[in-house]
Amino acid sequence: MDRIASKMEIGPGLLRFLAELKIFLVLFALMGVAALLSPSFLHPDNLFNILLQQASIGVVAVGMTFVILTGGIDLSVGGAVALVSVVMAGAVFRSPAIALLLGVITGCAVGLVNGLLVTVGTLSPFIATLAMMAVTKGCALWYSDGRQTVMPGDVFQYVGSGTVFGVPFPVVVLGGATVLAWLVLRFTVYGRHVYAVGSNARASRAAGIEVPRVTLSVYVISGILAGIASILITGRLNTGSPKLGELYELDAIAAVIIGGASLFGGRGSVVGTIGGVLILGVINNILNLLGISAYSQHVAKGVVIALAVLIQSGGYRNALGRFIRLWR
Amino acid sequence: MSLLEVQGIARAFGGVQALQEVSFAVETGQIHAVIGPNGAGKTTLFNIISGLLRPHAGRITFLGRDITALPPHRISRAGIARTFQTLALFENMTVLENVMVGRHLRSHSGAVAAALRLPRQLHEEKRIREAALGYLSSVGLFSKAEAPVSALSFGQRRLVELARALATEPRLLLLDEPASGLNPRETDDLAQLIRRVRDDSVTVLLVEHDMSMVMDISDEILVLHYGRPIASGSPAEIRADPEVIAIYLGGEFTGAAC
Known about the structure:
CATH superfamily of the largest domain in chain B: P-loop containing nucleotide triphosphate hydrolases
Largest interface: A-B, 33 and 49 residues
Radius of gyration of chain B: 19 Å
Number of strands of chain A: 4
CATH topology of the largest domain in chain B: Rossmann fold
Number of helices of chain B: 11
Structural class of chain B: alpha/beta
Largest sheet of chain B: 6 strands, mixed
Strand content of chain B: 15-25%
Oligomer: heterodimer
Shape of chain B: globular
Number of helices of chain A: 15
Order of helices and strands of chain B: EEEHEEHEHHHHEHEHEEHHH
Structural class of chain A: mainly alpha
């Protein structure tokens, strides 16, 4: 019995991990195409550049994965990034350490309000976080009076552009957040509860899961990670600005969905999300290398999102049959 | 002291009085059945006991402790588990994972603990897995452990739900129409299983429509009609009760009782 049990532990877990890695086949195929289109694509500097550009959106997307796994959504992450950025710009003149701390606390507070609106106020996550998107963006503009601030000192410069053993600091943060989130979601009781709540709330209650607390926690995690993402992007631009985080919510949601998550909850993974983040990054990068205008880049991104989800969900199968029936 | 005491429970939905003045006690080590025609308020009663609904009047004590206002997870922790008439399973998890979620109730589960004490959590996961496999083999589904729930027959899914409930180590198990949708053979196996659960010192309270099974396995029966208790007693007493016979006349009860 023991031997059977230990065998079973490895088998399906490994299989599932391989299934999670499927998204990277898509990524590598895309990178192959990119390499053919532009010889400079595979240059290490360019590849690091993609990682660096996607680091802050990636951190946000990791948090978004927790929320979407419970069947929720967090539209306020972009606003949280902006608010955290200007809060830090206001505090950095006292001390960079206080600014960093305040940044994380602010992100946490935004997440806490989201979570309370959803659990205690029983608002739908879409409505609650839509409202908080307006509130956070408004607060960021109000507090900063719409102005940008250049961050003094070298702490933020290091956070945005420094390296650890040759790896850019933001990429290290993204890697750390990804590994930690993956371990927590896959191998801990809390992680399985996140999946359970999104899979079937009624069954979760029957199994004794504290559904409201799990729900509250995912919004707090999303808020904290939005705060950390704001630290990275504020550092990289060396500027505290209420304009940061624009459209972050949509990019993060797109990355999670491309990564195979279901908006109804219960399905998805951090590994898939990171695949989605990198796919979006590669698309942006190759369009830049080819000199295609920023406007048409949006079009390309939209097409890729639709295609990726069509393929993942199998919605392309029998599409012709459904199209014909539409007119009968 | 009775294991579960229900005193004067009432609950209305809009103008409809679903339950009124329902009082009864469940004794430790028994199989206690609640029967009644459709709409008698049986499932409402279960939802109130398990904390999914609040009663408008009355109180419920479990092991001498008032649990009337507790949220569902606290009631689970106190030692009451349940299954649903319409199944409630995690469709995109494996059979084993479904049972493991029930087992989690007896371990630490916070987000902070998950992040800060990762190694210990990983070790804990292994113990949970082994315990869950034990519950799966006790309902005869050991070989299906790694199958996705969606690949199971309806009867097997019921057993997964039962195993998940047992994995919370309940003192009292609420079964909401466990035999509905099962064929006669599966129903017989289920009756055996419920008896075994009782013999493992888990008290059982069940709602059921299958009269032959109820009469066969129950120690005590409560009859609800339009939200009111109209009779209670041993299967023999219930079978002889004129009011019960009148309600069920021409229905399933007379057929099954013969």
